[in-house]
Every structure is written in structure tokens, then in C-alpha cells.
Amino acid sequence: MMNKLIFGRYIPGDSVIHHMDPRAKLLLSFYFIGIIFIANNWLTYLLLFAFTFLAITLSGVKWSFFINGVKPLIWLILFTVVLQILFSASGGHVYWHWGIITISQLGLINGAYIFCRFVLIIFMSTLLTLTTPPLELSDAIEYILMPLKAVHFPVYEVALMLSIALRFVPTLMDETEKIMNAQRARGVDFGEGNIFQQMRAVVPLLIPLFVSSFNRAEDLATAMEARGYQGGEGRSKFRILKWHARDSWATVSFAVLTAALIFLRA
Amino acid sequence: MSPIIDVEHLNYRYPQQPADELTLRDVSFSIAAGEWVAIVGHNGSGKSTLAKNINGLLAPASGTITVDGQVLAEDTVWDIRRKIGMVFQNPDNQFVGATVADDVAFGLENQGVSREEMLTRVPAALKQVNMQDFATREPARLSGGQKQRVALAGMIAARPQILILDEATSMLDPRGREEVLATIRQMKAASDLTVLSITHDIDEAASANRILVVNDGQLKEEGTPAEIFKHGEDLIKMGLDMPYAERLKAALKRQNVQVPATYLTEKGMADWLWQLRSNK
Ligand SMILES: Nc1ncnc2c1ncn2[C@@H]1O[C@H](COP(=O)(O)OP(=O)(O)O)[C@@H](O)[C@H]1O
Ligand SMILES: [Mg+2]
């Protein structure tokens, strides 16, 4: 059940993309989502797709992972696309018309663009999470949030919380599995019966899981304090992030992409 | 020589306890530098509470604790914690770092040790516990014994003078337990470490210089392993699993065989059995 989760699953590799600074990857991924909205004709979308394909090829991650990233969202995407086709302002040739529902040439084109946007955003964010270990992402977030220190936002503490949360995900997943087996042995059926029965079956899973998590948290806090943890101030850092030439080059390539999009848009 | 740990008339009460109840009652003892002391006692007798009092994780109701000449108080607690490394029972619940190397560095980061220094101390510590090949591993992919060795590496890197083990081997399989104990012995040999080990493991207690027996919040007895093990079956009442040689001795005694009153190791027992008939 748990290992079907694609989002947040890191695929180890040795590509340029894997070795990029997570800050560059994170910021450029967000930037990419922004510039998708510059595109407004076939040529610009084609360019964005070409760019994405190039990045994916460079990463060496198998295509199937990206297709699997789209699959869980496909109904949401199609729903949005259909709405867009049926209700957007009509223009060009009208194929069909009934009340407020219109299928027009413009509507179809807009629907196709929306579909492309979804796919591009999913591909790029999947690329980010598949090529960046969660820990590096949390480091990147720490750096990016650093300016918030000025308004006394506890950046170090939040980053440590994030990294501890990530570190405990597999531990708690193992534990869930164990508790599920223990409850199955006592006759609880998971994933059977109607929705209410299924929800009821989750209760004997959640309660022991919560109790044990609180115990773990208590133990962890004790261990951290025993090892001299007094809050984020005054700590040194063992893990640091390094900005390399490749990160600058990636940034330049995004600048070129932006310029090309502006030049080619209608 | 002045003791490295000195506990005088320690009383402790958990906040939620009624006023006339104490978890620790008038506990006094001292430990010399370089000693290996085992603390034994039933579950719930107050051993963990005692350990947490020594490094100021819990504040006593009354009494004084002196560590390496410093009296434990609010302004000395962080200094004292630096001198004491503590390893707990559950290997998962004390693993803070996302990877092995990060976890070893955690204590150093707290002390503000420079990164250059950490880059030498962390690999050296991992090497000492024989975990150097696992530096980038995540805890989920380590065995319990490996996680405890990483915890020990964290101690080695932080260079405490005192190591407190709170049932650090009790959740491990026999092999993991042996590896962890061997690592601790080797740490003790490498630096003049003082070890305070809370344990139910008779073999571990047998190899200590001294044993403190805690019962119902009080220090009931203290002595060398040989002195304590003379109690035979009473040991189980003290919260120790009786050693195999002692169990055999008790069984022989029930068969009216004359057995020596002194404590015998397994080897000593074998030698004695060997000569039992020929000496007659
Ligand atoms: N956080 C706590 N709050 C209240 N009581 C506690 C707490 N921790 C332990 N105790 C109680 O204090 C006593 C001693 O516990 P502990 O020191 O953990 O024993 P040991 O380590 O010898 O098994 C037990 O009766 C236990 O129930
Ligand atoms: Mg305990």
C-alpha cells in the first residue's frame, strides 16, 4: 500500500540533475511553474515540452515513473479540461451548442493547453522529487526560508523538525505494518466492507500508532537534550550545500528558455 | 582521588506524584574515575530516573549531585551534560540524524564544533565502532545493534568523560548485544572512560568493577560482582537474570551436592565440576 506513493520517492542516481544543488532545483522548479503561464501557442508549449524532455533525459530516470506520476491525478485533470472545453468563452468555429454549453474551436484549444500545463507541472515536480533526497529538499527549504529569520520565524527549528519527520517516516511505516498485522491476528479486517466499516477498522490502527508516536517523541526529546540540544541558535552545521557551476548553467538555461518563450508567444 | 560522580542524599519526585511519595529516596553513592559500575534493579525501581538526575534531565527534590567537581545546578547543567554521554534503550528513539554521519554529528553541532573539526571527528568515531562503511545510510536500513553502535560513535565524537547506558543492549539480539558491549569495552580501553551501566544482563554486570542494587527507589546494596552474586537466587528478586553457573549451583545444592559458596564464572564452574569427583 505504502510503496505505491510516487511523490517524495527518491530514485538514487548519478546524473547532472541528481548532483545539482537542491536549492537550485527547488527554486528553478517553482520558476518553471511560473513561466508555463507565458506560453500561449503551440510553439511555446512545444518548446516547454522539449525543455522538460531534455531535463528528464539528463536525469536518466525511467519514463514510466513520470507517467505513473500523472496517473493518480488523471481524473482531476480530465475534469478540469472538460469544464474548460464546455464553459470557456467560445470563439472560432462552434461545433456544438446547447444552452450555456458550447464546444468551440477555441474551447478545445484551451482545453488542450490546460492539459499540457498539468502534465508539464507534474513532470517537473516529479523530476524534482525523484532526483532529490528528501533531506536535501529540507536543507534547501531551510536556506530559502532564511530571510524569515528577520521576522523571528524559527527557521532552524522548522528545518530540524522537517528532517526528523522525514527520518521517522520509514520507522512509523514499519510500525503501522506491525500494528496492522497484530490487529489482523485479532480479527480486524482492513480494506473490507463499506466505507463506515473501513473507517471503523482504522481506529484500532490509529490509536496504538498515536500512543507509540508520542512515546517516541518523548524519548527523542530526552535523547536530544542529553546530547546538548538547546535550540537552533549557536549550533554549527555538519551538512552544507554547495553551489556549483552546473547550477549556474541550469539557471542560465532557464533564462534563455524564458527569453525564447517571450519571443515566440503570440 | 576525588570521585567523578558523587550523589548525596538524592530525593526525587515526579510532578504528578503525591507529595508524600518519592521515586528516589535518599540515594547516596560515589563513583571513581575510570570505574565500570553496573546498576541493577527491577523494572520501575527508579534506575532510569536516577540516570536522568545525574545529567540534569530531571531536577532532584533535594540532595546534591557533583560531576567532575562541578555541583549540578541550573548554570552548570550544560557543562555537565557535555561530560556525560547517555545511550538509551530504544535504538530508534534516540537516532536524531537523517543519516548515520548526521546522527554522529548531532551532538557536535549542538556544541558548535567547527565543520572542519566535525569532518575529522565523525569519520574517526565511525571507524572506531566499525561503521565507517555506513556513513550515508539511513537509520531504517540498520539493525538495532548497528544503530546502538552509531549512538556510541556519537558519544565518541563528543568525547565525554562518563558514559551512562540505560539498558542500551536490552532490545538487541545476542549478537548485537555482544557487538555493542565489545565496542564499549574498547572505548573504555581507548580513553579513561567511566561507565555507568543500567542492565538486567548478568554477564554484563559480572564484568563490572562494582554493582549497585536499586530497589523501590532506594540504594539497597553495593559491592563487587563476587559479593553481590553470593546472594544466589535472591538475585532474581534484585532484578537480575541469574547466571547459568549459579543456576546450576542452586540445582546441585538441591541434590545435596556440596557447592562452593563463592561466585564462580562459567569457566570456574566447569573447572570445579571437573575436579569434583577426583578430589574426593
Ligand atoms: N515521566 C514519568 N512521570 C511519572 N512517573 C514516572 C515517569 N517515569 C517513570 N515514572 C515512575 O517512576 C518509577 C521509576 O521509573 P524508572 O526510573 O523508569 O524505573 P526503571 O528504569 O528502574 O525501570 C516507576 O514507578 C514509574 O512508573
Ligand atoms: Mg528504565
Automatic annotation (TrEMBL), chain A:
<dbReference type="GO" id="GO:0005886">
    <property type="term" value="C:plasma membrane"/>
</dbReference>
<keyword id="KW-0472">Membrane</keyword>
<feature type="transmembrane region" description="Helical">
    <location>
        <begin position="247"/>
        <end position="264"/>
    </location>
</feature>
<dbReference type="GO" id="GO:0022857">
    <property type="term" value="F:transmembrane transporter activity"/>
</dbReference>
<feature type="transmembrane region" description="Helical">
    <location>
        <begin position="28"/>
        <end position="61"/>
    </location>
</feature>
<keyword id="KW-0813">Transport</keyword>
<dbReference type="InterPro" id="IPR024919">
    <property type="entry name" value="EcfT"/>
</dbReference>
<feature type="transmembrane region" description="Helical">
    <location>
        <begin position="108"/>
        <end position="130"/>
    </location>
</feature>
<keyword id="KW-1133">Transmembrane helix</keyword>
<keyword id="KW-1003">Cell membrane</keyword>
<comment type="function">
    <text>Transmembrane (T) component of an energy-coupling factor (ECF) ABC-transporter complex. Unlike classic ABC transporters this ECF transporter provides the energy necessary to transport a number of different substrates.</text>
</comment>
<comment type="subunit">
    <text>Forms a stable energy-coupling factor (ECF) transporter complex composed of 2 membrane-embedded substrate-binding proteins (S component), 2 ATP-binding proteins (A component) and 2 transmembrane proteins (T component).</text>
</comment>
<feature type="transmembrane region" description="Helical">
    <location>
        <begin position="73"/>
        <end position="96"/>
    </location>
</feature>
<feature type="transmembrane region" description="Helical">
    <location>
        <begin position="150"/>
        <end position="169"/>
    </location>
</feature>
<dbReference type="InterPro" id="IPR003339">
    <property type="entry name" value="ABC/ECF_trnsptr_transmembrane"/>
</dbReference>
<comment type="similarity">
    <text>Belongs to the energy-coupling factor EcfT family.</text>
</comment>
<protein>
    <recommendedName>
        <fullName>Energy-coupling factor transporter transmembrane protein EcfT</fullName>
    </recommendedName>
</protein>
<keyword id="KW-0812">Transmembrane</keyword>
<dbReference type="Pfam" id="PF02361">
    <property type="entry name" value="CbiQ"/>
</dbReference>
